[in-house]
Write a structure and sequence with these properties.
5-stranded mixed beta sheet, Protein Yojf, Chain: A, homodimer, DNA-binding, elongated, 263 residues, NucS_C (chains A, B)
DNA sequence: TGATAGATTTCGAAC
DNA sequence: GTTCGAAGTCTATCA
């Protein structure tokens, strides 16, 4: 790595390069040099304005933001508040910087959908190139985990339930759990990892209708399995002759143990 | 601002404070001193591991991440790829740092839902406190804009249409546009800024049913207005005696002009 | 490539 | 606080 104007002496290891108050030319060179480099995350803290054109149009007035370009070409511009960036681009086909009218401009574009984010830098306070490491990540408690757990222990939903299939496709969309109750009736189970609203009821109703259409001679039950339901959703269930069963998303011991470990 | 161990000389303006390779004690002091300060965004680049317990459970193995805490208490931990952080917490009730077994630990928690994110710092490369500025932001092309435009020019949907109401509440949810056609029939219009799927059809059907219930003696039409529909959604519309009208989300001239301005 | 559904969705508005 | 729906949602999966 050759040192640049404004580069600091401790640019080793994770911190590949740091520029303090770079000129537009050196910022553009810095950006073009590091963007999309393997495992390098580029960050610029600057007064800048941001324009977006694509599925919608937006303008962020000149203000101080943190601009982040990751090695996969994703771009995000963070303001003072919120997890969500002010502007972003999850995938880009091209990210490049240039100097225009004495200012460094970063343009990130993608086709399909055709979109552009343009960042015009005014005062640049800091530019960093960081070399991050990928590390293992595990998540549990998704709907998929819940489905696997209930497929192993269907009695949690109802005594005598036998699972016939998971992710059974009926027309469009898939039935989370397709089962047989103790009386030989078909059971369509729709799972929700969190409180269920009427969309969940609608989904369940669609699947039940699809099964009834395919198997007209059999009785078909519909069960919404979730940790809780909203009141209107429960009414909708009752109205349509569907059922609700309370199931907790995570094994009860797990979160408690985790909470204990954290405090 | 009093200078800390490792603080750099150019800590003025936007860059409130910068620490290079701080000790666990100084990092904890730094975090507790800056977190939730007005307009201050705190960032730490470090080898760390992250645990999350709440709606789900997750663990990120020790690796190099960018940890960001904004002044509203939101937390996000970014890895090398993607706009989405590895871990995050959109709202927190408490963010605090302390030293545990010789390591700085950051804990961000919230009640309702009860959630905790714990970051254990190993090697800390950089810690920044940045003072960001809020600036104006405008977005156009949202469904709300579309609704306003169509309320002004309902003939775009159909000749002779008269808008009676917008966001009319019927039971749960609101009718985007409630209108009267040239023959005096009531018209429920559901808008979508992007391609509409069967959820949009379901929404429309619910609203139409609600209006028919409230006004049993009147004929009620249902129109889905969107730039396009999926094939299954179109079938569902036909099946339920509902209609589709193609409306483009943005005025055709706008995006083209914007694109031109950007390149 | 298109369609569907999940997501620790986030975010904001209405009640 | 609850409920609901939009979002520039994003992302993975499957036909």
């Amino acid at each position: 790595m050759k040192p640049r104007r404004g580069a600091l002496p401790y640019c080793v290891g994770v911190l590949r390069e740091q520029l303090s108050s770079p000129t537009p030319v050196s910022l553009a060179a810095f950006l073009n040099g590091h963007v999309r480099s393997c495992d390098v995350l580029v960050q610029v803290v600057a007064e800048c304005e941001v324009e977006y054109a694509g599925r919608a149009l937006s303008t962020a007035d000149a203000g101080c933001y943190v601009v982040m370009v990751k090695c996969d070409g994703s771009l995000q511009i963070h303001g003072a508040r919120g997890v969500k960036p002010v502007n972003w681009q999850p995938r880009t086909d091209d990210v490049s910087a240039f100097v225009e009218e004495g200012r460094c401009v970063l343009v990130a574009s993608r086709r399909s959908p055709e979109e552009v984010v343009k960042v015009t830098f005014h005062d640049v306070h800091l530019a960093l190139a960081l070399e991050l490491e990928e590390a293992g990540f595990t998540l549990s408690g998704s709907e998929k985990d819940m489905q696997e757990a209930l497929a192993r222990s269907p009695h949690v939903i109802e005594q005598g339930l036998t699972v016939l299939d998971r992710e059974l496709l009926v027309g469009v969309g898939g039935i989370d759990l397709y089962a047989l109750d103790r009386d030989g009736r078909l059971v369509v189970v729709e799972l929700k990892r969190a409180r269920a609203g009427h969309e969940a009821v609608h989904q369940l109703a669609r699947y039940v209708a699809a099964v009834r259409l395919q198997v007209p001679h059999r009785e078909v039950r519909g069960i919404l399995a979730a940790p809780s339901v909203t009141a209107p959703a429960r009414e909708a269930l009752t109205r349509q002759g569907l059922e609700f069963v309370e199931v907790t998303a995570l094994a009860k011991s797990e979160p408690a143990a985790m909470q204990g470990a954290l405090f």
